[in-house]
Description:
It holds the Pfam family Gal-bind_lectin. By secondary structure, the chain is mainly beta.
Amino acid sequence: MAAITNPRVPFTNSVSGGMYPGRKMVVKGGIPPGSNGFSLDLVCGSDEIAFHFNPRFGEQRIVRNSLLSGNWGAEERSGGMPLIKGEPFEAQFECQEDCIRVELNGKHFCNYTHRTPYHKITHVKGDGDVLINQITFEGK
């Protein structure tokens, strides 16, 4: 089980072994009380984002999207805001054959249908007002 511990935000780390059906990325961290939001991205190479996970506290929603060939796709904005400023959180991103399944604090939040092949994912990036304690990768 690969782990990234206490990365300084912003960060970029490789996803050792890549993403594949059954592979989970588990992110444990905390949200500062003054946070406006943050992003966690599953990145393909240097210029494409397969999955952009972007909690926005001002809007009280979590935006999901992809950046492919230099263009952002259609935002997915449903589901509200289950994360709370000033609180710890656990986010689990499980790669499935057709989507990324997202759980927040142990509860299913959304499924994000792949817009680019999951095998292209090489890195995870984090940015914004968030404290990351640990990112682990679990695979079958």
